[in-house]
């Protein structure tokens, strides 16, 4: 039995309201031994904490998503800080920049991201970075805010190898999901081939970014096995080796014993 670690999932999403427990059971049956659920705004942070407290193998990351940056109020950063002392909270995230969805002004996104990197440095917590169409600014802010002091994860990485190298040099792990199973996803596959094995992570981002052959349907954590299989093929190793290495990488990155 292989042991898989889904480092980024949203099991509290409304898409799972009808079969959440069954979805989690299917993931366990597929070999998923640990998951990190992401709480990213005022609504999903509490539901993420409930999941982490209910299941011993589900951990939490809490932060403010760039799409929701404009909704962050005074006191929310303190709220995130208070939750970081919880034994099941292992990272601040997902945080970052999103230039695709026009919901929060860029200057607001930048401010909220910088605040949260500062908090992560203060608390010595890794960060989970969301980056959509903002590669240059992400790298710039990570450097300026000395994110290398805590490191973290570049979630669902979609940038170039040049960008990946800059992130690796700042101590980040690079995480890949469903897109590496897509036939036309040339760049993610090329980047994954170059990422050192000891800095590689896998994820689903469920219910989004569903891997082939279920593309177009709801994603779920059990499908991280398909991501592992694709990564194994790209790396030219067994799926057992990918599962073992990425699980160990995640345990070390998030400080899980």
UniProtKB/TrEMBL annotation:
- EC class, as a word, reads hydrolase
Q: What is its EC number?
A: 3.1.21.-
Q: Which CDD domains match?
A: TatD_DNAse
- Which keywords appear in this protein's UniProt record, sorted alphabetically? Hydrolase, Metal-binding
Q: Name one GO molecular function term.
A: hydrolase activity
- Classification via PROSITE patterns: TATD_1 (PS01137), TATD_2 (PS01090), TATD_3 (PS01091)
What the entry lists under InterPro entries is as follows:
DNase_TatD-rel_CS, Metal_Hydrolase, TatD-like, TatD/YcfH-like
Q: Which domain of life is it from?
A: Bacteria
Query: What's the name of the protein?
Result: TatD DNase family protein
Species this protein is from: Paenibacillus sediminis
């Amino acid at each position: 039995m292989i042991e898989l670690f889904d480092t980024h999932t949203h099991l509290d999403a409304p898409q799972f309201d009808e079969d959440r427990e069954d979805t989690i059971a299917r993931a366990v049956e597929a070999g998923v031994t640990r998951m990190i659920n992401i709480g990213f705004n005022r609504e999903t942070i509490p539901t993420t904490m409930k999941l982490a407290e209910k299941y011993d193998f589900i951990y939490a990351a809490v932060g403010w998503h760039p799409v929701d940056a404009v909704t962050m109020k005074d006191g929310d950063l303190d709220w995130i800080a208070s939750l970081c002392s919880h034994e099941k909270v292992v990272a601040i995230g997902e945080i970052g920049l999103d230039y695709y969805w026009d919901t929060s002004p860029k200057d607001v996104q930048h401010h909220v991201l910088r605040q949260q990197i500062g908090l992560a440095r203060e608390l010595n917590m890794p960060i989970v970075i969301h980056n959509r169409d903002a590669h240059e600014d992400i790298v710039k802010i990570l450097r300026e805010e000395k994110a290398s002091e805590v490191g973290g994860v570049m979630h669902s990485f979609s940038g170039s190898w040049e960008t990946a190298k800059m992130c690796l040099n700042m101590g980040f792990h690079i995480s890949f999901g469903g897109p590496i199973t897509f036939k036309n996803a040339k760049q993610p596959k090329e980047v994954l081939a170059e990422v050192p094995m000891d800095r590689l992570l896998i994820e689903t981002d469920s219910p989004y970014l569903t891997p082939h052959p279920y593309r177009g349907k709801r994603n779920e954590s059990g499908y991280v096995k398909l991501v592992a299989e694709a990564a194994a093929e790209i790396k030219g190793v067994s799926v057992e080796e990918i599962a073992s290495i990425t699980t160990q990488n995640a345990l070390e990155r998030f400080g899980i014993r």
